[in-house]
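Continuing from yesterday's entry. The apo prediction looked reasonable, so today I'm repeating it with manganese (II) ion included to see how the binding region is handled. Same sequence as before; SMILES copied from the compound registry.
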Amino acid sequence: MWPAPSLDKQIVEAMGVKYAVTLASFKDLEPIEKTLARISPIGFDAVEVYGEPDLLNAGKLRGELGKFQTDVCGITGVWGASARSGNDRLLLTSDNAKLKSAEKYVRDCVKLCAELGGRHMNVCLFADTELSVYEKTHLFVAPETKLRIYKHALPTLKGLATFAHEYGVSLFLEPLNRYSTPFCSSAQDALAVSDMLGVESFGVMLDTFHMNIEEDSFDRAIRLSGKRLRHVHLADNNRKMPGFAHIDFSTIIRALDGINYSGYMTFEPTIASADGYEDSLKKGLQFIQSLSKQSSLS
Ligand SMILES: [Mn+2]
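Holo prediction written out below.
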């Protein structure tokens, strides 16, 4: 069992916003050690390690992180079609064996997270075909159907949040978008689940790429989430670094400032090539930092 972080660490983490980047963005380009060497001069405060516990050797990774003095803020849960094992990490399923396997996946990620000094993992709600109760043309699930399905999942989510809490890790429900899973695809969906659970170690996070598809308004979704918003993923609408397409990040930063957001902002870009990606990372980070400086976030 890994000890819960000290009060000192919690106080430091409560002060101001911090910036991280997802190692998943580089996963297919080069070995992790090479990525750490290339991104460490850029100025991120931490990295989010991808949630593939079977592919990662925690001891070796700790050594590599130490070599570049890189902190880990959390684990990026790998859900849906991007999962190494295929689309079988299903927390909304009537198949008990599949559910047990998804629960084990979260527990393994939580342990890896604690072992690397991280504090959070994102959870996404995917369902098996038995639960394909959505309207096929627009991939839409009726709100009352969603609530019925969430209620079934509450004991599972509560059990996982309790397990994570014992390791000093929080679970954050990440709404995606209708093209990956229509079951939890908006701030309102995630807040409904989090409110039904009412567990401190189970919060809500938002991802600007998905919000751009599903939310009526960035500002409204962030303000609606308020204190319940614990983590943010940043990418532009084409999933490049912020500032490389047309999402209005000044509105997003202003809204985060408006709710006194103080967690991590993790950049989650698609990196198309290993060739010279440092420039876009640097530009995207500086762009968000400059917006934050105009607010009271930094
Ligand atoms: Mn994300």
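Comparison notes:
- The first strand starts at residue 18 and ends at 22.
- DSSP finds ten helices and eight strands in the chain.
Will overlay with the apo model tomorrow.
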